[in-house]
Amino acid sequence: MTHALATFETARQRAAVSGSAVLTAWRAQHGPETTRTPAIRAENDVHQNLTVDELAQRLGALATSYAGKAVTEDTARQVSAVYACVALIAGAVATLPLQVYERTPEGRKAIEHDYWWLLNEQPHTEISSATMWEYGVESRLYHGDTYLQILRPGLSSSRASGLMPHHPSRVRAFRDWNRGGKLLYRVQPEVGAMVVLDPADMIHVPGLGFDGLRSVSPITYAARQAIGTSMAAEEFSGRFFSGGARPDVALETDAKADPDQIAVLRATWQSRYGGTANANAGPVVLSGGLKMKQFSLSAEDSQLIATRAFQIEEICRIFGVPPHMVGHTDKATSWGAGVENMGRGFVKFTLQRHLVKIEQELNRKLWPTRSRYFVAFDVAGLERGDLKSENEALRIALGRAGEPGWMSQNDVRRIKNLPPVPQGDGLQSGAALEPGADSAGARTEPKKPDDGEPATA
Question: Tens digit of pLDDT for each residue in 126-168?
Fold first, then answer.
């Protein structure tokens, strides 16, 4: 019996030190150690799901602001200014047409291409293109990066058959130093096994602070304090109004009060003046030498309204959105008046830095060996002004008052989504009409006079 116990204890200690021999043998044949290269094996061993830092970021442990609020994707989305800025930028990008063009000696030419459907209608069977672009831009604004996996019809095919967005927390870029530091992407989808993708199969649109692998999160890096302060001010405001919109007070007296009297007085005060339902209750009448002393600052004394207004401007400044475009209209905009000027300013100063990166990444991944085709967002709809100004501009483009035109009638009809008309592709030459010439420049014969009517030239 003693020998059997000694044998069992020896086996237990050996298993604790070196692990199960059967399990070790199985993992050597089927486990992560057989995945491609040692660098990828190490990456998979260390980062099966989330790293400690990534997990802490998700839980808010490393993103706590000075105001004591944890700033994460979920908590930042609850701040109205953050939600409005992200919704404005992501929604604007999602609604822009993404046209496919061909380079020609005469310039670019819009063409029909299979990729148009993927980029503008349905990149995947489960989502629409507008949803994909909105999700991708939202991921970039919250986490710093946009990840879209390029789906192929086969392993050896270079044609894209679809695009699949991935949450940034499920994608990790790393380098395989056994292959000269080649960049690879480890993706853990919501359903299915982890995969390692080549950069040719991943649309990666980084943000500001890109270090070659990933970008920093704007909300936890640049906007952490502003969002945290806004959350604290929101909580203080809610608690202030839930308490009847009255500051904290203390009832003091020179007389000695026993615990029962204090409890009854506290309960009576709370039942009469606690909560917003009793905010308009009548004045309190104190007796027995009781005096009321204000304990804390009021909303006006603490500059709550000014603080919340400043935090809105601070958050808008980080996202590059003018405050007036998210409903903060205390100050006038410096972009000029009118929808046209506001739309141009929004495209030029806010959207353009997002659109250019998306266009360049799509062009170099969808056509890696060709420069014949390219994609570009059409921002004409956002820059379009009022109907009167637009019609006046088109009239000038067609040519008027003898001025040469630089757009044809069919060009204008295409802008208005109208079908072309016969002989509508010509340009107005702008040549001044000679006396006696018709609109085509031909001379006309003098009108023959009738009886009693003088001749006219």
Answer: 999 999 999 999 999 999 999 999 999 888 888 899 999 999 9
Instruction: Assess contact for 372 and 102: CB atoms under 8 A.
Output: yes
CA quadruple 19, 21, 22, 23: dihedral sign: positive
Nearest to 81, CA basis, from 183, 211, 233 = 233
Would you say the C-alpha torsion 175, 179, 185, 188 has a positive or negative sign? negative
Query: How far is residue 35 CA from its own chain's centroid?
Result: 35
State pLDDT tens for residues 258-307. 777 667 777 776 666 655 554 545 455 555 666 666 655 555 555 666 77
Q: In what order do the strands lie in the sheet with 162-166?
A: 162-166, 145-151, 202-206
Which residues partner with 176 through β-bridges? 182
Instruction: Judge whether 237 and 189 are in contact, CB under 8 Å.
Output: no
Using alpha carbons, list the distances in angstroms from residue 75 to 169, 220, 226, 383. 16, 11, 13, 34
Residue 182 CA to residue 205 CA, distance in Å, equals 18
Side-chain half-sphere CA neighbours of 441 within 13 A: 6
Q: Is the pLDDT of residue 8 over 60?
A: no
CB-neighbour burial class of residue 151 (10 A; exposed 0-12, middle 13-18, buried 19+): middle
pTM greater than 0.85 = no
